[in-house]
Task: structure prediction
Amino acid sequence: MKLSWDQLPRHVKDPLAAVYVVHGDEILLQQEATDLLRRAARAQGYTEREVHHAERGMDWSALLASVNTLSLFGDRKIVEVRFSGKPDSSAASMLEKYAGNPSPDTLLLLILPKLDGTAQKAKWFAACDSAGASLQLPVIDAHTLPNWLSGRLQQAGLRTEDTEAFVLLRERVEGNLLAAQQEIEKLRLLADNGLLTTDIIRSAVGDCARYNVYELADCALNGDAERAARMLAGLR
Result:
């Protein structure tokens, strides 16, 4: 079952699945999604947690045995496996095998970077998706950042006094959602009645924006000279 970001909060109110695959490159969203799953799991009786980091030469048969073994106290558990890339052949084989007959007392949480279309057609992914659910984290780029930022400000009970203030905040956090969320939390303490002025943002929010050369090239080709100059300065 494929889940969208917006579906996740409703999904965790129901009995959880046996396997979850969370993949994407946005660290903040990855943290928020996995935290939400862990809280829901604890509320549903998964009281123990194991964390494994997938490494070269890892003994996947031992991990499979651990996933299938009930804890010493008979408690349900979360087994979390963090990957730095796509699963290798040994990992893929183990995941496919386990997903075919998952333990009813274990929630397997797989956390990976963004998987392309080919990787999502792999047998291990299909087996895990069939046994549980997969969540591809959304990409928050320059085009989607305004809506995302506006939503986060609203959730925090904040609003900007005008377009200039909003644009300034957007420019200072573009490409860095983790910093953006931290700055929003800080601004909650500074805003009078939730109103963010340009002066407050200018004095309180540092330039946390992150860019890459591909975004710079696209910006230059689109003729946005002002933004391209800002990105170039940020890349130096």
Remarks:
- The CA atoms of residues 64 and 94 lie 7 Å apart.
- The chain is about 50% helix and 15% strand.
- The mean pLDDT is 89.
- Strands lie at 2-3, 19-23, 46-53, 76-82, 106-112, 133-136, 159-160, 195-196.
